[in-house]
């Protein structure tokens, strides 16, 4: 049986921006420091990351707003200046005197001989690195034009950008762009990792994400409860050695259903992925026109186009959806499968076209052990909202989907989410090379195989998503992202699951 080793480290826990704002002062006090000390530590952390990532950078451009994020920027600028760098510091309102800790940081910069200038786009061309200290986590509405113009200029240039805490213009909780959003090369986030930085468009906007607890991590963790958890392959022990006296029946009987006329490849990918993920026996129920395409070259698959009832009875676990279609054959197959799984309380993975059929009959079926695997478009149909709605608040809609269908929802995409109605996990692995036909079918086969081997539905969903994404990363590291195809994942998944 697979086990998890979830680290208690804050670097794997997510906290909403408001949780950080409400608790960081108390955490600082418990840790024996004040908020200005945190600001100094934040600026130092950003400068140190610049030194590590952009070691030969001699010219720093710091663009500052008006709040504490700007204060972090002033401290970063001061560190750079004190270390012999040429620093250009631009503020949205260069004559404005800031207040509180940010004002204190600004005064430190001025006392050291620093200047505050109006922004000029030509400054970007002369800089080796840009520090984005425009807007922090407090912004929740569309940004003003003067900020948008600077963000456009940064995004239009080739100079690397390091964002402080969050890319300016990004909603730290949802990952939604608030009209404009800096596309950072690197983001250094503080105290707690915010959920909007690790999924969807927010993950893209952050570039490489670095976490710094500023020395108050333990105290903060004692005050705030995480809203989600990051997962990577190191959190799982693996499946462990098989018993010497086991046999094929020990590892489950998985039935994969799909492959309508013209779409045989989808169910073939899912079923072969299931074999490579350790399922003992895999049977495919498919359209009569797809029999040859599914079985050709893979004699280990048992393939049939008749007697669905008998196939359902045989199975201990089911995957339905890859290549299923939405015609009369698909509808009849879907209805029979769902009725069986409901009456027999049989675990099922519902993917692809089966999700589209499910949203038409959402009140007809409730299955306790089920995993739904929608991408944003399928999730939008399942919930009766737009794709933009889903992508603008992925955590919210993953939870809505799991609650409406009483299932574990795997919301696919950059930073895939796994939600079980009560908790949310985010996969750290994965890359754009996996955005290719059949990749989701492979995932459904992996998930089905893990449940067939006896893993509880929550654990199967978490481990399966991480296995699939890490396999994609391993292939990309070997050969690059472009040209990756879904079946490339088979050997990588097999290697990982045996590690």
From TrEMBL:
Enzyme Commission identifier(s):
4.2.1.136, 5.1.99.6
**Keyword Lyase annotated:** yes
Cofactor(s) this protein cannot do without: Mg(2+); K(+)
Catalytic activity reported: (6S)-NADHX + ADP = AMP + phosphate + NADH + H(+); (6R)-NADPHX = (6S)-NADPHX; (6R)-NADHX = (6S)-NADHX; (6S)-NADPHX + ADP = AMP + phosphate + NADPH + H(+)
Residue ranges of domain YjeF C-terminal in the record = 231-499
Which free-text remark accompanies the cofactor? Binds 1 potassium ion per subunit.
Quaternary context: Homotetramer.
Record's protein name: Bifunctional NAD(P)H-hydrate repair enzyme
Source species, please?
A: Alteromonas profundi
Q: Which gene encodes it?
A: nnrD
């Amino acid at each position: 049986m697979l086990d998890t080793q979830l680290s208690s480290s804050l670097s794997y826990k997510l906290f909403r921006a408001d949780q950080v704002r409400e608790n960081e002062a108390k955490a600082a006090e418990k840790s024996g420091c004040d908020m200005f000390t945190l600001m100094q530590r934040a600026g130092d952390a950003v400068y140190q990351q610049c030194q590590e990532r952009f070691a030969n950078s001699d010219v720093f451009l710091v663009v500052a707003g008006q709040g504490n994020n700007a204060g972090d920027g002033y401290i970063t600028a001061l560190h750079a200046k004190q270390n012999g760098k040429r620093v250009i510091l631009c503020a949205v309102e260069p004559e404005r005197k800031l207040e509180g800790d940010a004002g204190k940081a600004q005064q430190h910069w001025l006392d050291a001989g620093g200047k505050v200038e109006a922004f000029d786009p030509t400054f970007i061309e002369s800089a080796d690195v840009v520090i984005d200290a425009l807007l922090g986590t407090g912004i929740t509405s569309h940004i003003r034009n003067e900020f948008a113009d600077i963000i456009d200029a940064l995004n239009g240039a080739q100079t690397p950008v390091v964002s402080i805490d969050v890319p300016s213009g990004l909603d730290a909780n949802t990952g939604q762009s608030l009209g404009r959003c800096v596309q950072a090369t690197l983001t250094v986030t503080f105290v707690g990792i915010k959920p909007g930085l690790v999924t969807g468009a927010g993950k893209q906007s952050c570039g490489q994400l670095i976490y710094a607890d500023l020395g108050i991590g333990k105290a903060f963790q004692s005050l705030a409860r995480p809203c989600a958890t990051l997962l990577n392959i190191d959190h799982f022990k693996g499946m462990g050695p098989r018993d010497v006296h086991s046999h094929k029946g020990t590892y489950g009987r998985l039935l994969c259903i799909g492959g309508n006329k013209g779409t045989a490849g989808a169910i073939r990918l899912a079923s072969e992925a299931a074999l490579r993920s350790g399922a003992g026996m895999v049977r495919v129920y498919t359209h009569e026109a797809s029999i040859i395409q599914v079985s050709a070259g893979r004699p280990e698959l048992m393939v049939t186009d008749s007697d669905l009832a008998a196939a359902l009875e045989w199975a201990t676990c089911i995957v339905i959806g890859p290549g299923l279609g939405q015609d009369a054959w698909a509808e009849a197959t879907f209805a029979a499968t769902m009725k069986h799984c409901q009456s027999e309380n049989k675990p099922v993975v519902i993917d692809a076209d089966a999700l589209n059929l499910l949203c038409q009959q959402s009140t007809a079926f409730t299955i306790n052990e089920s995993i739904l695997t929608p991408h944003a478009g399928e999730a939008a149909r399942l919930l009766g909202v737009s794709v933009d709605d889903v992508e603008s608040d992925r955590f919210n809609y993953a939870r809505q989907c799991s609650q409406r269908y009483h299932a574990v929802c795997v919301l696919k995409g950059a930073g895939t989410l796994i939600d079980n109605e009560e908790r949310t996990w985010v996969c750290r692995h994965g890359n754009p090379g996996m955005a290719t036909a059949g990749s989701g079918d492979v995932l459904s086969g992996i998930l089905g195989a893990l449940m067939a081997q006896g893993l509880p539905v929550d654990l199967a969903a978490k481990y399966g998503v991480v296995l699939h994404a890490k396999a994609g990363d391993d292939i990309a590291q070997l050969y690059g992202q472009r040209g990756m195809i879904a079946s490339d994942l088979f050997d990588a998944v097999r290697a990982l699951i045996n590690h």
